[in-house]
Design goal:
9 helices, 86% helix
Length: 197
C-alpha cells in the first residue's frame, strides 16, 4: 500500500515541481518588476494596456476603461454628425448656386422682355405690325407664370403696361393683377376701366 502511495506521489511530483519551480517564481518576478517600475514613477499598467491592445489575443483579455469606451463612442458620434452636417452644407451650397443661376436667368429674361415691350409700345399710334407684336408679347405672358408677368408689368411704364393688359384675355389679366402689388394693380385696373369707357 505504501508502494502505491509512493507511485502516486511520484506521478504528481512532476506537476507540482513544474508549478513550484517555474510558475510561482515567474509570478513573483513579474510582481516584483511591477512594484519596482511603479516606484520609479513609470506607469507600468498603462504601458501593459497600451501594448496589449495591439496584440490580437491579449487585447480581448485587457478590460477597456469606461472613459475610453465613452470617449470613443462620443468621438464616433461626433464624426458622424460632422459628416452629416458637411454633406448638408454641401447640398445647400449646390442648391443655393442653382437658385442664383435661376434668378440670373429670370432677371435676364425680364430685362429682355421689358426692353422689347417698352421699345415696341412707346409710340401711341401702333401700326398693324405693332399690334401683332403686342399680341406676340401677350402670348408670351400667357405662357409664363403669373408672378413673373406681374413683376415685369409692375416695372414697366404705365402706358406700355396698359397696352399689354388691354390685349390680354381676362383670365391671364386677372392672374397677373392678382399677383401684383395691390396698390399698383388698383391703379392699373382703374386706368383700364377709364380707357374702356
Amino acid at each position: 500500500m505504501s508502494n502505491q502511495y509512493n507511485e502516486k506521489e511520484n506521478k504528481m511530483n512532476p506537476l507540482v515541481w513544474f508549478f513550484f519551480a517555474i510558475i510561482v517564481p515567474l509570478i513573483v518576478a513579474i510582481t516584483l518588476a511591477f512594484i519596482i517600475i511603479a516606484v520609479t514613477g513609470f506607469d507600468a499598467w498603462g504601458w501593459v494596456k497600451s501594448t496589449g491592445k495591439n496584440i490580437p489575443v491579449i487585447s480581448s483579455l485587457i478590460p477597456a476603461d469606461e472613459n475610453e469606451k465613452r470617449e470613443a463612442l462620443e468621438k464616433e458620434q461626433t464624426e458622424l454628425v460632422l459628416k452629416e452636417k458637411e454633406q448638408e452644407i454641401e447640398d445647400l451650397l449646390l442648391e443655393n448656386n442653382d437658385l442664383k443661376a435661376q434668378i440670373k436667368q429670370m432677371k435676364q429674361k425680364q430685362a429682355k422682355l421689358e426692353k422689347s415691350i417698352e421699345t415696341n409700345l412707346e409710340s401711341r399710334n401702333l401700326k398693324e405690325d405693332d399690334t401683332n407684336q403686342v399680341d406676340q408679347f401677350v402670348g408670351a405672358f400667357k405662357d409664363m407664370k403669373a408672378e413673373q408677368g406681374a413683376q415685369i408689368i409692375e416695372n414697366m411704364n404705365e402706358e406700355s403696361a396698359l397696352s399689354l393688359l388691354k390685349k390680354m384675355p381676362n383670365k391671364v389679366r386677372g392672374k397677373i393683377l392678382e399677383a401684383m402689388d395691390s396698390k399698383k394693380a388698383a391703379i392699373l385696373t382703374e386706368k383700364l376701366i377709364d380707357f374702356n369707357e
